[in-house]
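Notebook, p. 212. Picked up where the previous page left off. The plan for this session was modest: take the two constructs that came back from the sequencing core last week, fold each one, and keep the raw output in the notebook itself so nobody has to go hunting through shared drives later. Recording the first one now, exactly as returned: residue sequence, then the structure token string.
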Amino acid sequence: MAPTKDPNTLSNHLEFSTAHTAISLTLSFSKSSLYGEVELTLKALADGLKQVVLDTSFLDVRAVAVNGKGAKWNVGNRVEPYGSPLKVDLEKAVNSQDEVIVKVTWDTTDKCTALQWMTPEQTSGKRHPYMFSQCQAIHARSLYPCQDTPSIKSTFDFSIRSPLPVCASGLPTGVHHFVPATSPSEPGTLAYTFRQPIPMPSYLMAIASGDIANAAVGPRSLVYAGPEELLRCKRELEDDVETFIKTAESLIYAYEWTTYNVLILPPSFPYGGMENPCITFATPTIISGDKSNVDVIAHELAHSWSGNLVSNASWEHFWLNEGWTTYIERRIQGKVHGDKHFHFSAIIGWKAFKESVELFGADHEFTKLVIDLRGKDPDDAFSSIPYEKGFNFLYYLDRLVGRERWDAFIPHYFSTYRRKSLTSFDFKDTLLSFFSKDSEASAALAKVDWDTWFYKPGLPEKPDFDTTLADACYALAESWQALNSSNSSFKPSPSDISGWTSGQIVVFLERITDFSTPLRKDLVELMRDEYGFLKSENAEILSRFLTVGLKAKDEKLYGKTAEVLGGWGRMKFVRPLYRLLNECDRELALKTFAKNKDFYHPICRGVVMKDLGIN
């Protein structure tokens, strides 16, 4: 693996590599800030090095020491969107393999993009404040000074002082009553310590603190949540987590992170889940009461191998994280529920893929598999494309060489790059090398047009998915389309969808939104009355039905849309609903955003502002 310059970091990561991170944080809920000290053990990668450069963003740096002695340092001018380089001069030049320990003391500021601080009123329990982090893609630098690139991995020791329980992306090692006098803290503060012995990149550094309790959901798994939701969350997850782990292990190799836990966050969390090692941070929208959305956990679990153990070397190769993870998630679904579910999930994914390409434009840079992010913010490129285009590329290779051969390659790939980072070109070389002595597989792989897959924008050829589970959904949608054209005697009734899974309802509603002519308003209301979608507690269903209504410009659904936008923070739902509401009633969209902007995580708030054209 040749060293590759990550265009989204200001650190000199080709000259130094962080081997260990020891981080000490003190939370202040009253000030919505962290006081921190971090010791970075850096290994020199070349001779004659005289300066360490770290990433920071909106940090108030107080002091810097090198090997225990005060050092000369400065914070450079801000470079959007990457922050400000922290330049630390070394007393004397160091040579390759030398170790340097850089200690930095700092405070976060109110411009920190990695943290969301919530008042008691913003939580379900209404009694205690809450804080959680989201560092992917380049937000760790606003939490602590670091080499904020996925090409660098380090082991971690955490000490986090808080008056409320703490979770972090490591293994708990204790709770301590002693709080050093040098650390400003609030009454009742305890020190929670964690260790992460497996090297991980900065974007997987995660912390959360609030009124959090836990319950077992498997022999090596806990669910963490607010006390009021804990029992409901336990019931939702307890039969599935260990099944998913064992299934993934049968595809790849043994789970390495010791425990696999899930933290159900407040509703402002901007993603479905975040694959922080040892503890997935998850949206409460997966707790639907009917287990219909727990496959999100299969996806985040799959990241324990794809992304966490084996990582993309830069965000330009994000598909290596998400494409592989989506592929493994669907293989888990196929093994647990039957192969038709692999295809059914892929059909749903293709719809999201197609919509993302249409949103960017078919020729847009961000619709490629390998993208150019020089000078760009990785958050702007975030979409379903790396997930689904990546999945479809891997599924193409799976079919090309044959499932039996491909299944032999999977553990080889994850063993080759275990605890490492790689590029798309490393993946290509490893694949071709693995099959080099297999003449039949080599001949098949010779047909792969790598440049087209890597660099051609837009959609590839759609695979011939098994539509067995989708056919009934398509047929019902066609009935509604005929009704929409006044060419049908079809009379909808609740029995139309009796026995359907939530996934089938999603496919039906997405088929409706695919039609060139939106549903008439009276039919939207008939669908609402007959199928009860407006009363659904499943965000996947309700968001799709509201999409149908907004495309029909049904004013009766504008208020409900504004209501759910004040209760959901997951960007998968929030962004498309805001875009549609903006087309229907810009004044209401802006009013809704203004009312709820402080509820949203900074990442979500920023992209919605761009979607709505708010400066």
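Okay, moving on. Second construct, recorded in the same format:
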Amino acid sequence: MEVEVAPASSEASVIVVSESGSSTEEEDVPMQVPGPSDRARLSVRRAVRRRHIIGSNTQFSTHEERMRRLRELIVDNLAERLSGSQDAQRSVPHVNPRLMDPDPSGRHHAGDVNVPTSDESSPTGSSVSTESEGTSAAAQPEEPRQESEPVSESADPVSAAASPAGEAEADDGDGENCSICFEPWTSAGDHRLAALRCGHLFGFICISRWLTSGGNKCPQCNKPAKRGHIIFLYARKLKAVDNAEEVRLKSRLELEQGSRRMEQLEVAQCRQQMQLMADENVRLRKEVEELRRWKAQAAFSSSQGPSHSSSQRQDSSSGGHYVFSKAVLVSQTGGSRVLSYCEPLGCLLASQPSPQATFLPGFGVKKISTATLKPSQYVPIHSKQIRGLAFSRQQDGLLLSAALDNTIKLTSLMTNTVVQAYNTGRPVWSCSWCHDNNNYIYAGLANGSVLVYDTRDTSTYVQELAPLRSSCPVVSLSYIPRAASSTFPCGGLIAGTLEGGCFWEHVEGTTYTPHILPLESGNCTDIQVEPDSRHCLVTYRPGRANPSLRCVLMELSRTPQTDSNQQPVCSCSPVQTFTAGSSCKLLTKNAVFKSPAGEGATLVCAGDEATNSTMVWDAGTGALLQKMPADLPVLDICPFEVNQSSYLASLTEKLLKVYKWE
């Protein structure tokens, strides 16, 4: 009896137990157990054969030659394992050769001996008995595979490799064994872990011998390689985590998040447009109601005949009115405070907090083109809220700004950069230019004083105009230039505080003469001037004596000098009073200006907090001409002209509404 290796496939071999079929003494001779010397010779023979495979001087020419040598190595490994299992057997049973050649009729001979089960033969469960390695018996012809039924399935390497356990072992071995000698690589020594440029892993001594013996390609992928391409890897066991699905899911997640952000942005824009349309709808409804009321009043006036007053007939047939043109979003979060118009650049400037407060904190101004009525860009200037904006008359686009960060700054709107900054030491509430000498600028402080600066001197102020009464903040500064007027020819600065107002007459250079204006004490919130008509508009908030907001138009006057010892006195007297709502919590800046209708008429505009609207009066008659609604309380009003058309802009915390005179 002997063991043969028959090729079962191109990747594995099957051990077949065959019998000679003769009835000689060989049938009853027990199988010899190899001794220690035989096992030593088997180990030497396997090592020599492995070195022969690895260190061959010629490259494997054909696939059949390679597979033949691999089969020899597999036979040696299996023989060593079987010899180890036979050492534990005490006796080897006889195998009847007739068991390998069953009778075609299906009957067995009387003297047949059954092959013992795996539990009786050895602890390892093997039922195959092999001949001693030292014998030289001749191989018997290979029997058909179906006649080898007594052979245990555990001895079949193909079935073992095909089992799930075999697959798991093969998968584990891929990261531990050299693909040339099938031995585990080590972390040190000759058989340490190494790799080629193509990325395949081998034992260092194996791949080194492979390349030095004439193999100039990788044994696995046949890419060109040489001995200098070998690099050491400092890992004994490798395992790559398959994260392709994770990467794919992450990319899909990023795409979904991007699309969701775009959808959220579109939703926000749609909501904003819807809010604007709703505001526009409310405004149009109110205008329709007002037009109906005016129509009813006109019909009633016509029915009264010629007894109707001439002033009301003039109001009903006036030269025009303001029509809503567009609403511009200035600040999404609010915080806008003051408004100004730059004629050289043709743009409105509204103060606002930084739209990117996280990356660029502070406050600045937003440019809004008067040609397209669209915001263009944001210019950062101050670190705290801006309280005042003013332009000079030199047409140079130089903006003067005052803020609560104790500074006033000059900013060039040509380059959008700050060109000069002055530290006042206290919060600044208002500012103004000197229109008689553009080299001088004024800053109204929180303690009631006014600092005079010369733009040619960048170090400090040139003069301080100390408060004459209390130290209330200077909420407004307006300069009225000199003019050839019989009633008020002098020029100077009007400073308004909560306690009243003072006119600082500009005599010459840095010489100023103070004149206390006869205003109500404790309720003054704003003073604006109309330089051509020499009028000023004083705003009083509601109080105990007057529960409504009042805007009083006053005419400036100066008493002529009759004696050399007596100085002329500048004063003002009320001309017309306009009343609004009963609420005034904010310091709204109002406006007095010439009417676009001409004929020497003057208009007065003021914000009404009680109704969130802009009210327009005729200064000559005191009649209310228009009441234009707003979404929030109006904080500042600015009239301007573009291409021979007159406009009026009203600013709230978030929106800028523009009206055109028609």
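Notes on construct two before I forget. Helices lie at 36-54, 63-87, 118-121, 157-162, 164-174, 204-212, 244-304, 310-316.
Flagging for discussion at group meeting.
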